[in-house]
Amino acid sequence: MNRNNRTRLFLIRHGDTIDEETKKVFKGTIDIPLSEKGIAKLKKASQFLSRYNFDYIYTSALSRCIESGKIIAEPHNLETEIAGAFNEIHFGIWEGRSFEEIDEESPTEFRQWVKNPDIHTPPQGEALIDAQQRSINIFNEMISKHRGQNIAIVTHAGILRLIFASILGMKLPAIFRIAQDYGCINIIDIYRDDIPVIKLLNFTLY
């Protein structure tokens, strides 16, 4: 369905996860399910998004996004499609561990990464530039594949920040200046010139 040659992408972060009830950790590619709080939040987001007509809904391959995507999809009577390229950044041996634990055991490596995440990579982890390349590649594929349609993508905070950094021409160390709260909704419009325009960022007032 062509909507005046406008392609609209709804980029949604998954809901809160069960680990948040104890301590915050690098989740990365660990498969951590939604908490009850996360499910409740996504139901509210889904109700808000029901006013739009989605043509397709994609999620990362991790359960917290698959669960969130199914909740978002329910009012639209759509099946979600999995796109593994939207999986979260892989944080290597830091995954499943808290900032405090890593800072205590490997203070030099951790602080180098915090200061210059574009140069330093977690041990056995994924470089930010590589994660950005795969995420912006599939983002651009979605634009080409779904021209004139409304597409929802349920993914992770790290991936969302990398996509926005690419759109805005930001340097990678600045990505953590972009808030992406659990269950947030972002909207990006693309017109004939294929230039993405961010219309809504980190919206959770539903």
Summarize it.
The chain is an alpha/beta fold and 206 residues long. The chain has six helices and six strands; from the N terminus they run E-H-E-H-E-H-H-H-E-H-E-E.
- The N- and C-terminal alpha carbons lie at a distance of 27 Å
The residue fraction in helices comes out at 25-40%
Strand content: 15-25%
Per the principal axes of the C-alpha atoms, what is the gross shape? Answer: globular
Structural class: alpha/beta
| Major β-sheet profile | 6 strands, mixed
> If you average the pLDDT, what whole number results?
94
Element order, helices and strands?
EHEHEHHHEHEE
What low-confidence regions span 5 or more consecutive residues with pLDDT below 50?
Answer: none
User: Number of folding domains?
Assistant: 1
CATH superfamily: Phosphoglycerate mutase-like
Q: Gyration radius, to the nearest Å?
A: 17 Å
Under the CATH scheme, the architecture is 3-Layer(aba) Sandwich
CATH topology: Rossmann fold
Task: Give the number of DSSP strands.
Answer: 6
Report the total helices. Answer: 6
Strand order of the largest sheet: 3-2-4-1-5-6
What top-tier CATH class fits best?
Answer: Alpha Beta
List the helices and strands and how they pair.
Elements: E1 7-13, H1 36-49, E2 56-59, H2 63-73, E3 80-82, H3 99-105, H4 107-115, H5 128-145, E4 150-155, H6 157-168, E5 185-190, E6 196-203
Parallel strand pairs: 1-4, 2-3, 2-4
Antiparallel strand pairs: 1-5, 5-6
